[in-house]
Amino acid sequence: MTGIDEFVEAVQARTRALASGARIGQFVSVGLAGAGLETVIVFLLTGLATVPPLGAKAVGAEASISLMFLLNDRVTFAGEGERGIRSTGRRYLKSHTVRLGGLAVAFTTLYVLTAWTEITLRVSGADVWPTLANVIGIGVGMTINYVAESLITWRVHR
38-47: which pairs have CB atoms within 8 A and are 24 or more residues apart? Predict the structure, then answer.
């Protein structure tokens, strides 16, 4: 087998692993739980308190990432990693590291939609535009997170 054949085989294995409909559905479901938690936190901190959108995003993102790791580790990728405190701790650190890409996209999206626009969307007196902008950023970052978590954190292609 040549180097090119090995490369093509590796790409195909990763693509097959990523294309699992069941895994994608579980990942999206877990992501919705995380997005829901983050959205509530962003709303509470920006809509009812005076926390700036990016500060609220940081608090919400950390809570969300931790929740999603726990759910993904026990459901979505339950058969993919070694059990035990050390192995779980390593995956937790990897998960936080690989999610930086998706988080950077989400933060950038939130920043662009709130700092570069003058959109206000009031519902019952509260400006929900930062919350909606945050949801948009979460959606954009989700694809990056799925690929990175699948291939780097849980190594589903092995």
Answer: 38/63, 38/64, 38/134, 38/138, 39/131, 39/134, 39/135, 39/138, 42/130, 42/131, 42/134, 43/126, 43/128, 43/131, 46/127, 46/130, 46/131, 47/126, 47/127, 47/128, 47/130, 47/131
Within 8 A by CB and 6+ apart from 60, the residues are 37, 38, 39, 40, 41, 42, 45, 134
pLDDT at 113: 93
Look up the pTM and report it.
0.71
Helix (H, G, I), strand (E, B) or coil at 68: helix
Window from 18-22, 57-61, 110-114 with minimum mean pLDDT:
18-22
Element housing 39 (H / E)? helix 21-43
CA distance 70 to 75: 8
Q: What residues have CB less than 8 Å from 136, skipping those under 6 apart?
A: 109, 113
Per-residue pLDDT tens for 43-100?
Answer: 999 888 889 988 998 899 899 999 999 999 999 888 877 788 999 999 999 998 888 8
